[in-house]
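Extended Data, panel c. Modelled sequence:
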Amino acid sequence: DVQLVESGGGSVQAGGSLRLSCAASRTTYYSSYCMAWFRQAPGKEREGVAGIDRSGSTSYADSVKGRFTISKDNTKNTLYLQMNSLKPEDTAMYYCAAGDSWPCSAKYWGQGTQVTVS
């Protein structure tokens, strides 16, 4: 079964931090080559934020490098996104995704979690 469930979104002031989590079903987690975070702000296209492959190699959008960290816990089948030094332009719906090719193109999507920075 395919299941990606995000949590951890919320409202925060500029300069603050949030940690997003994405709980994946065991099948999705271990069958996917990579997992990633995407975001979509109102009126804008969905964009890739960060990705991590099976070996732990990571990639980041230029706009979040040095502020966001993607990681995963194989014992919990969970993907994380630690977001520090948040800016108002980080406001968006954040989606967890799992894919089979690199850069991580999404094959499966979560339902999203809202992040609002004021």
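The radius of gyration is 13 Å. This feature is highlighted in the accompanying rendering.
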